[in-house]
Amino acid sequence: MPPFTSRPSWPSFSSENSSSAGHSLGSDLHPTSSGYKSPTHSSASPDLSFAPLANLDTLDEEAEEASPEPGSSTRPLVPLSANQYVEREMLLGVSLGFNLPVISTELLLMAGPMPNVITLPYGRAPIFHFQAPSWRKLLKLMARLSATRVEPTVDAISVAKHDLKLRTVIQFIKIHHSASEWRTVLYLTTDFPAPANLHNSYKYTNGDISVLPYSYTLSQLPTLLRDGSESPMAKYYVVPSTPTTPYPNLPINFPNLAMYLQSAVQDSRRAANDSSSGLRKLAQYIDNCYQTEADRVAPIDPVVSRRGVGGMFKRVMGRNKANKNSRGNEEIYDLVTPFVPDEWG
User: Fold this and answer.
1) If we measure between CA atoms, which residue out of 186, 179, 95 comes closest to residue 135?
2) Is 0.85 surpassed by the pTM of this model?
3) CB-based contacts of 255, cutoff 8 Å, min separation 6
4) What distance lies between CA 89 and its chain's CA centroid?
């Protein structure tokens, strides 16, 4: 049974490291020797914030009580940076870091800042996690975080001496044995090929969605990943490399990572009638765990961006204009970010 609590313990982002006014963006996130320490403010990775920390309009009581503009959403926006605006409710039940994810029975507001850069080592290192209340909410939030990216550490680049790929595992976890709610947890590592002389090394390269990548075996596994790929309380899916969805190169920003994940779902839906592999399981997990969400179309915002959205729809949707299955289009619709005025607006 996964650990659960009404008040999650989240050491990676302590109140000592966050702004007293609320959410802000301005630090990089990388593992330490123990894997569970707070992010430091000195990193070899570049600072990708688009505004000085002092200029950020952090989440506070004024932001919560501000009167909305006519025709705008009544839900307050939380400006995490000049390029990242999210509604307060989108941060409920969210956690991320190199610590172990804690499954809570209630959705508490994310503690600490949203990092600019998440740096992944190459080889033995803690596994990064990103938790959200549901699959759809995870993708919607990632689509908003255009100034957050995942990249390899400087040491990883110097040691590997080749293009580094991202290895992704998706897990759905029941919050309690008697509950019907499931949380979504994303795990990320830098791909580390299995040695050729390793016994049964082929199992890491044959696309088996139930075998964790070799990079995950180099460190202590999170507790929730130790009980196998499918149990009554938790199910995980190792995203394989396919002709349409190869492993992404690092660095990658969160909106592009969200599109990669949605492409993996489309691969899974196309394999709905293929019983020869486990490719179809991701779509099955999503539909079974979030039955009430599966058929609901929930655009991120009434007003969507008029710049760049058309091109994305043509690229992602235009390939199958005759396809009458609307589920894929509905899922992609969630990845359209709202229009946010900026210095070029």
Assistant:
1) 186
2) no
3) 142, 143, 144, 145, 146, 335, 337
4) 16
